[in-house]
Amino acid sequence: MAVAHLILQLISMAGNGVGACRVQIIPATIFLQLLFRALGADGASSFSFTNSCQYPVWVGVLHGASSPALARSGFYLAPSGTYHLAAPSSGTWSGTFWARTGCAVDSSTGRFTCATADCGSGDVACNGRGPSPPVTLAEITLAAPGSSGQDFYDVSLVDGFNVPVRLAPSSSGGGGGDCHAVSCAGDVNAACPSDLRVVSGAGEVVACRSACDAYRSARYCCTGAYGSPAACGPTDYSQVFKAACPAAYSYAYDDASSTFTCFGASSYDVTFCPRS
């Protein structure tokens, strides 16, 4: 029935009328959207992770409040290392991925801690805990498999920056919607204003705080009187982030240029320290 309905839609778009023989070229994006909706495209089945950094990272995974936990909530990823996680097989899913750096076990306490983006669990697994800013976030909401809904995804610097990241949908059969990769590959730490820098004991800038995290003001956090898109626009600080990573969220209401959609993707690839 769904395929028959699709054919009827295509016929109606091609034109009608007695004795008429009119052909209208249907844009490929419209055709794919109709096809996926008719057939009920399967949702993404997996997430893949690649560490292209020259240093190890410890990936953090946090599921949304109404979403099931994935098989791992944290894991080690060596330079050039890869890892795969299965996505839930039913229902919508939302969650966040990030990289922790400078991690080690404290010899005096036995707790696992990280220099940036620590989730505070005391372990490699984050166990339902989110990261401490500053942190670069890869955020995604998957539509339920077969629902014909769109996935939404982004890279966010709203909570600051620690590691470059790229988030890209992948599909063996093609996808609908924009389905573009979104990346923050720029070195935000190199451009970080002096009052937002997080500096290691060796004097290296290892992360860049957001102005909200540094100053806790309503203007920078888009709260209180600034709690709407009309009232909260970009600031000098957020524009530093936007200049380095134009496709990433630079402040809370930076939706227009920073939210991406796709349907029909079979997987999503997360790359830390991407080349572009």
Task: Compose a concise summary of this entry.
With 276 residues, this protein is an alpha+beta fold. The protein folds into two domains: 2-39, no CATH class; 46-185 and 248-272, Thaumatin (Sandwich), CATH 2.60.110.10. The chain is 17% helix and 26% strand.
How would you describe this protein?
17% of the residues lie in helices and 26% in strands. By secondary structure, it is an alpha+beta fold. It has two domains: 2-39, no CATH class; 46-185 and 248-272, Sandwich (Thaumatin), CATH 2.60.110.10. The strands form four sheets. It has a six-stranded antiparallel sheet, with no helix packed on it. Strand 6 and strand 7 form a beta hairpin. The longest helix has 13 residues, at 2-14. The protein is globular and about 50 Å long. The termini are far apart. 37% of the residues are buried.
Main CATH class of the largest domain: Mainly Beta
The secondary-structure element order is HHEEEEEEEEEEEHEEHHHEE
Strand % is 25-35%
The whole-angstrom Rg is 22 Å
Organism: Oryza glaberrima (African rice)
Protein name: Thaumatin-like protein
Keywords: Disulfide bond, Signal
InterPro entries: Osmotin/thaumatin-like_sf, Thaumatin, Thaumatin_CS
